[in-house]
Amino acid sequence: MIKPFFLSLVIMLAIIAISSCRQSKKDQAHDALVSHVDSTIKPGDDFFLFANGKWFRQHPIHASEVYNGFNQLMEELSYTQIRKICESSAAIKNAQRGSVKQLIGDFYYSGMDSVSRNKKGLSELSGDLARIEVIRDLRGIINFSAYIQSLGGSSLFDFGIGQDEKINCKNAVYFAQEGLSLPDRYYYFDTNSQSVSIRKKFINHAESVFISLGYSKNRARAAAGKLMELETALAGNTRNADETRDPWMNYHKMTYQQFSELTPDIDWNIFMDYFGLHNVDSVIVRQPEFFAALNKDIRSYPVDSWKIYLTYHFVRAMAAYADDKTYREFFNFYASTLNGTKEQWKRSKLISEQTNDALGELIGQVYVDKYIHKGTKEKLVEIGNTIKTVFAERIKALDWMSSATKEKALNKLNTMRMRVGYPDKWRDLSTIKIDRSSYMKNEMNVNQWEYKYMISQYGKPVDRNVWRINPQSFDAEYDPAENTVTITDFNINIPGYEHKIADDAILYAIIGTTFGHEITHGFDDQGCQYNAQGNLQNWWFSEDSVKFYARTEMIIKQFNRYIAIDTLHINGELTQGENIADLGGLILAYEAFKKTTQFKNNEIVEGLNPRQRFFLGYAFSNMVSIRPEYAVYLAKSDEHSLPKFRVNGPLSNMPEFYETFGVKKGDALWVPDSLRVKIW
Ligand SMILES: [Zn+2]
Description:
The protein is of the alpha+beta class. Among the domains are: 194 residues, Neutral endopeptidase , domain2 (Neutral endopeptidase, domain 2, Orthogonal Bundle), CATH 1.10.1380; 260 residues, 3-Layer(aba) Sandwich (Collagenase (Catalytic Domain)). It is built from 29 helices and eleven strands. The strands form four sheets. A four-stranded mixed beta sheet has the order 2-3-5-4. A three-stranded mixed beta sheet has the order 6-8-7, covered by helices on one side. The protein is globular. Zinc ion binds next to helix 24. Zinc ion (ZN) binds next to helix 24.
């Protein structure tokens, strides 16, 4: 499904650090792990800060970023490679139409052409804005919402085609809640001063947007107020982030007829016709009550209010590809006010990232030809297989799981597919229309092409060869509906070890934990609801669930105790799935590392024994400092705990860590045996 604007903006703005964040020459003389340690901190009090503190002091967060750390170092390397691919493609003036280099090069060129972009301003949107002006009824509202969605924007709700979670060979039509400008429901209703101030600033921002479209000050002010009123109504109908986690609660298959009856005033044929989708007999509705409420709202608010909503969401969808003034207006609200970013990226970085966002699959094809280290795939496969072997051993030895469930778990583990490196097959993108004349049009064309592609998958079997992540990105995922782990080539790069493959302690601590984390997702509170084939079907016996949930209860309580910032605690309920995966990944990676010669021979590297290097390496992979505004946003809505607790939390449960660093009763991280969580 296509990313909403806000998300892609956050991704665009939050991805990469600037060159000053690279390690200094002085540091490179030493091993990265050794040079980051802050020896004034006791490891048993705060291992996260002990392992990373010195680096944090030497590398403050840059004004154009919301955080700085391991990911920024990785992404800085990735960005440098992506930019080179973009620049060298753009340097070819007469590349063959539809070729990889032509598409990348012209897209990038049009984005870098500031003169033409700024001259056009928002004029390219005027035809569509005039279409909104003449909307008179619900039909027009639905029709234009479809158009905004086809451009990658968000309007009223989310729609997409993807694998049916209960019949995994079939693609189905999904409808879900969406259409808000602020990131989550609570932004509209929280009464704390921060939320109140964000709402005020949002109204001011919307007013400026309307003024830039030619509204008078009074009319713009009134429009911004109406937009906020509508969005607050929509927000009132949406579920909280933690209520969207349960796949059963968010899967409601109904016939097309039933969906139409749920929303009697909305004619879905208008929407389906827009995309040329005919003969849809059933749909999966993630939050039926949202659509029932939308049906009411769409009737009770005047058409003029919806036109204001459509206008804002349409401009918002294209703002990141418009002139500098429009971009700055949206940046100021979404990146600065919401996330605390102080400064914009320089143009070449922004356009490289946007090109990668739009055409990442094409950039990936050049990347694998140009940048992959020899032996990468083999090393990743070795680590992945060792982790799988260790997990099988541990499942067999679990004291809380029944033997019948163990058999199913082992079957699921054996069936699990590993996709490593880069895809065997690439999609043919040669028909996307891209030229050097308009950046905005190029972006529209890419999104509409992607939408058409998505629609074309309806009724077809799921194509298992298409990856959602690109080889040049620092990324890995587990897809429960496919029972597949995907890990990209790029993961082999470790900052500070770019010119050699790092030692196994580091590789297992960083890549091994990633593998382990992703694999355990197939067996946690969400993964147990999908069977070996990836279909939504709980394969546990009820007594196993009871025992598992007793353990997850412990990890929820453990993380609820942690204070994220000021008085705000980590949300143990929301983050439980990720915390379980972090803990599982850490244990599996450690056990797998024990099978390497470095561990067996107790090889000392840079004065550190294998166990010390492993735990420091794990803290290194979570070495991230975050701006307070962004930390609040993450603590409230991200399913992952903040980096500090992704380190200190799992380690507090691990006796091997206590032994390695001499953690004793009285140290802040020390937890009595009865409270240490053991799941995998
Ligand atoms: Zn995860």
